[in-house]
Amino acid sequence: MLNDEQNRALINGPAGIGKSTVISAIVRSLKSLGKAVQLTCSTGIACHVYDSGLEHQDVLKRVKCTETLIIDKCSMISSRTFSSLCEIMSLKNNDYLFGGVQLILCGDFLQLPPVKDILYNDDGSFCFENELFDQLLPHRIQ
Ligand SMILES: Nc1ncnc2c1ncn2[C@@H]1O[C@H](COP(=O)(O)OP(=O)(O)OP(=O)(O)O)[C@@H](O)[C@H]1O
């Protein structure tokens, strides 16, 4: 389990290796410790950020109470969406990237890539191509 000094992690591996199983175990463990965990995936994030139908206040409340944010299928999170998420999470605490929440990304960058979206000026580049990614996670994707 991650401690306070291991505040962020990338769980990366090929299809069927057991990433989602590990995530489920992490969620169970963190919840048993009383942590406020939000688990979502790339399609879920699209729903929450753009067209979830939730009242803004509901999203804001959820952002502010989140202690750990887990994003599964992160290969489909574009660089632009990653920046947007970072901005949204800064509503919790503007002093830290992603509002200072514990961030756990999970996925396989050799599976589905982000979807390009001209309407949102999204060129479909990967989240790991975003400079914020380097600041948040020291991992290198080649
Ligand atoms: N330690 C393990 N021992 C045996 N089976 C496992 C183990 N971990 C996971 N599995 C099984 O392997 C299968 C794939 O696991 P899981 O869905 O977690 O993989 P994944 O890496 O998330 O896959 P994908 O990238 O395709 O979403 C599941 O049926 C799961 O129950």
UniProtKB/TrEMBL annotation:
Names of required cofactors: Mg(2+)
Pfam families: PIF1 (PF05970)
Catalytic activity: ATP + H2O = ADP + phosphate + H(+)
InterPro entries, per database record: DNA_helicase_pif1-like_DEAD (IPR010285), P-loop_NTPase (IPR027417), PIF1_helicase (IPR051055)
Residue ranges constituting the DNA helicase Pif1-like DEAD-box helicase domain according to the UniProt record: 57-116
Record-linked Gene3D superfamilies: P-loop containing nucleotide triphosphate hydrolases
Presence of the UniProt keyword Zinc in the record: no
Annotated family: Belongs to the helicase family.
Name the UniProt record assigns to this protein: ATP-dependent DNA helicase
Taxonomic source organism: Mya arenaria
